[in-house]
C-alpha cells in the first residue's frame, strides 16, 4: 500500500523537508512491503478554498482543475504521515487550507503525525487529531513530537535513535491500521 509523507510547511528555510527526507529514508529501510512517497505542499499548486460546493458534498468532483489534480494525488494514497510544524499553538494555515480542499480522499484512511516545535508541536497534533477525526480519518495512539531543545541542537535536526524509535512507533501503528483495513475490505 502507498503512504504519503505530507510536508506542510512552505516557509523559506523550513525544517519540514529535512525531517521528511530523513523520515522517508527510515521508512523505506523498513522493507515492510509498503511504498512511501513525499508529498511536498511547496510543490503543489493549491489556491485558497473558495469553491461554492462544500468539500464534504463534492464526492471528489471539483470545478477547479487545481483541486482536481490535488484530489487525484491524495486519493492515490492509502495512509498518511503528516510532517507538521506548530503555528501559534495550532496547525500551519497553508497545510490546513490544502487539507480542507478535499474530504472523501482522506476519509476512512489512517493518519499519523511527525510534529516539531519548541515543545514538540503537541498543540498542532492535538488540533490535527480533531480536524482529521471530523473528516473520518483513523487516528493512531502514537505520534512523534520533536522538541527543539532535544532534537535540534545548534539548529540542526538530529533525531538520533530516540527520534527513529518515535517515528517507527507511529509507522508500526500506521501499517497495522492499513493491514486491518485491507483485511476488512477483503472479507
Ligand atoms: C507564525 C508562526 C507561529 C509559530 N508558533 C509556534 C508555536 O505556537 N509553538 C511552537 O512550538 N513553535 C511555533 N513556531 C515555530 C515553528 O515551530 C518553527 O519555526 C518551525 O521550524 C516551523 O516549521 P518549518 O521550519 O518546517 O517551517 C511558529 C512559527 C511561525 C512562523
UniProtKB/TrEMBL annotation:
Transmembrane segments: none
Pfam family, one: FMN_red
Keyword Glycoprotein: no
Superkingdom to which the source organism belongs: Bacteria
Species, as recorded: Corynebacterium nasicanis
Coiled-coil regions listed in the entry: none
SUPFAM superfamilies: Flavoproteins (SSF52218)
Annotated ranges, domain NADPH-dependent FMN reductase-like: 1-147
Top-level taxonomy: Bacteria, Bacillati, Actinomycetota, Actinomycetes, Mycobacteriales
Gene Ontology MF annotations: oxidoreductase activity
Protein name, as recorded: NADPH-dependent FMN reductase
Statement: the UniProt record of this protein carries the keyword Secreted: no
Keyword field: Oxidoreductase
EC number: 1.-.-.-
Family matches, as InterPro entries: Flavoprotein-like_sf (IPR029039), FMN_Rdtase-like_dom (IPR005025), NAD(P)H-dep_reductase (IPR050712)
Amino acid at each position: 500500500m502507498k503512504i504519503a509523507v505530507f510536508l506542510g510547511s512552505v516557509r523559506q528555510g523550513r525544517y519540514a523537508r529535512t525531517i521528511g527526507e530523513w523520515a522517508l529514508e527510515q521508512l523505506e529501510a523498513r522493507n515492510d512491503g509498503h511504498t512511501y512517497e513525499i508529498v511536498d505542499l511547496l510543490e503543489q499548486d493549491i489556491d485558497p478554498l473558495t469553491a461554492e460546493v462544500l468539500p464534504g458534498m463534492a464526492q471528489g468532483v471539483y470545478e477547479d482543475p487545481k483541486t482536481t489534480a490535488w484530489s487525484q494525488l491524495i486519493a492515490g494514497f492509502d495512509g498518511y504521515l503528516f510532517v507538521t510544524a506548530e503555528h501559534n499553538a495550532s496547525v500551519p494555515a497553508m497545510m490546513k487550507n490544502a487539507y480542507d480542499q478535499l474530504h472523501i480522499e482522506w476519509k476512512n484512511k489512517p493518519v499519523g503525525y511527525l510534529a516539531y516545535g519548541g515543545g514538540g508541536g503537541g498543540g498542532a497534533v492535538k488540533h490535527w487529531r480533531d480536524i482529521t477525526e471530523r473528516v473520518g480519518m483513523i487516528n493512531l495512539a502514537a505520534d512523534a513530537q520533536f522538541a527543539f531543545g532535544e532534537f535540534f541542537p545548534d539548529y540542526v535536526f538530529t533525531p538520533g535513535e530516540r527520534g527513529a524509535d518515535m517515528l517507527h512507533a507511529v509507522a508500526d501503528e500506521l501499517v497495522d491500521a492499513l493491514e486491518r483495513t485491507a483485511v476488512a475490505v477483503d472479507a
